[in-house]
Amino acid sequence: MKNFQIAAMAALVAGAVLAPFSAQAQQNGVTRTDLQRHDLSAPEREAIQVRVDLAPGVAFGKHTHPGEEVIYVLEGQLEYQIEDKPPVTLKAGDVLFIPAGTVHSARNPGNVNGSELATYIVEKGEPLLTLVK
């Protein structure tokens, strides 16, 4: 019984910690799956990994992160608009680095699902994602 109580408490804590991150950026055609989150040796910094899936033709609007984002495209193709630079389209196996606080957006220009592994190196306690108008 004690093991069950410990497991139940761990599940509640994990849900309370991860729920704000998955709820922040869900929209139709966009799925964010939180994979892991760990404190770093650098003070007040943490690493967060998220799988982001975009359905064909779906876009995720302009936003920023409170730290660096390192992207690895897992499948399909994704187009990224970083600030006012020309858009760049990446395919499975391609990578992209987005500096902290940089306004960017993403869309799936293809006709199959597009997926990325996003690794964030961010300030602890800050919202992982802030939408920009």
UniProtKB/TrEMBL annotation:
Coiled coil: none annotated. Residues 1-25 form the signal peptide. It comes from the Bacteria. Residues 51-112 form the Cupin type-2 domain. The keyword Signal applies. Keywords: Signal. InterPro entries: Cupin_2, RmlC-like_jellyroll, RmlC_Cupin_sf. Pfam families: Cupin_2. This is Cupin. It comes from Bradyrhizobium icense.
